[in-house]
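Next comes a concrete protein, fold included:
___
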Amino acid sequence: MADLPPDAPINRWKTLDKDLGRIGRLELGTQYVARPLVAPGVALAFVVVVAIAAAVFTGGSPDRLLVIAAAVFGAYMALNIGANDVANNMGPAVGANALTMGGALLIAAVFETAGALIAGGDVVSTVSGGIVAPEALGDGQAFVWAMMSALLASALWLNLATWIGAPVSTTHSIVGGVMGAGIVAAGLAAVNWPMMGRIAASWVISPVLGGIVAAMLLALIKPRVIYAEDKIAAARVWVPVLVGLMAGAFSAYLALKGLSRIVKISLEGAMLLGLVVGLIGWALAVPLIRRQSEGLDNRKKSLKKLFGLPLVVSAALLSFAHGANDVANAVGPLAAIVHALGDGTVSGPVTIPLWVMMIGAAGISFGLLLFGPRLIRLVGSEITKLNPMRAFCVALSAAITVIVASGLGLPVSSTHIAVGAVFGVGFYREWYMERRARRMGQLRGSLLPPEERVRRKLVRRSHVLTVAAAWVVTVPATALLAAGLFLALRAMAL
């Protein structure tokens, strides 16, 4: 390249381009650093809006500040429920690639909100009066401090559990909080210990039952569909049966757990409803699956397409039922506080006002959208590898287990059931592959060495220990935290 003549113009734009490039990189770096602060900022804005709304709805009440503080605690609790608990519904569908993360968040937000507003529990008897006898607390002031302590303690514990990546039961969190505050306020005799015993039993019953049901469903699907010689023909027979089972199970599940506000229904009535809806679902699925399976190749990948839509529907139904059932964990103590301050009594049924229910519904959705992806990924892909067939077994297990447990009178936790079902599917896969490897090794005259079999484990053991420990610690941790908060709040009030 020839040298430029001495009188050639100097390209000053090159220097400007370099400076703009540096500024652009600085802006990108600033955005990267600030990105983690966006979600907490939006959450804080939501809490501020809730405080303003509570101030508007309480009007000139003399206890206005207490209600505003309780509403802030309730909003914080709802955010943490959305961040932690909803992962159990959407994790399997995302892990199986039946839904994108964005699609899962949208569906969950819509159906959680719909479940909370349409079928949210009208009376929160267990939270406000079933764990600790309200009359044992003496005056209404002690009851209010106990409920506020329980609400804040359970929210803080859920926040910590989400941060360390442990899906825990929000029901157990609030129960532990109410128990701890109640013991400090009124002594050990005020606690309903038989109920606490049933809740402790659910630590074992829920995951074991969920895991067994999920493993049984996968054991049904594997030989009859996945490893069938003609997979498409087998799917045309069995997928409609499973869709009908899903429709019936979720109908009974919603009737038992989510529709109590609209209509009261017995277990027998829920089972009859499930049978009718299940038969209708099967009849509709037969032509649909036949049409959907036309032209598909006889391979496992084709089966994933046939299970995709039922899996998405089951995840949406689980979210609806969760919103209807677990919104009380966020707003139950808040509703009890509003009731106690408004009526001056701590006994009797506690009705949830619409504005309180709106706080719970909106908070769960915001928490899910802002903080939910981390635990959704953990449940969906970091415990064991899921595909649409395995994820369908997890979702269906959640509904069936609740129905079976209700019929047997056993206490269960939907969180523990869903996570236990994921573990159940994973451990069944390990057992199945181990048996298959041994059979193939016997045919070939050689077995896999022990170290190779260990390397092929399909469930991450570290998550088993983390999740189990978090489950066991939840009630005592929230109880101790609530007890300390109760003492602090009462001391501040004196």
